[in-house]
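Below is how a single chain appears once it has passed through the pipeline. First comes the sequence as given, then the structure the pipeline wrote out for it. We keep one example in the README because the format questions we get most often are answered faster by looking than by reading.
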Amino acid sequence: MAQSKKARAIITPILDVMQTMPAFVYLIPVVMLLGIGKIPGVIAVVIYAIPPVIRLTDLGIRLVDKEVLEAATAYGASPTQRLFGVQVPLAMPNIMLVSTKPL
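Resulting structure:
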């Protein structure tokens, strides 16, 4: 999402819908499939909690300085090495913002 405007244009409305629906909406189909219990509740809460994490990860990766990415490319880093070795570690403060501040 952070590297493709087309992917962001597709995924952002899906995340908007996921965040505006109450957790009970996710719980209904899970309860129908798995019955009443702790597992369906956990699944519904996880589905409800995923959109903020995706949004903040996207934001954190997009906020990494272009100069740092350029330096990593100059040192011969592959796109995968740049993502996991440079962008994700530098984006960690924004990604971890989920647990420290409400959106």
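Residues 25 and 94 are 28 Å apart (CA to CA).

See the next section for the split statistics.
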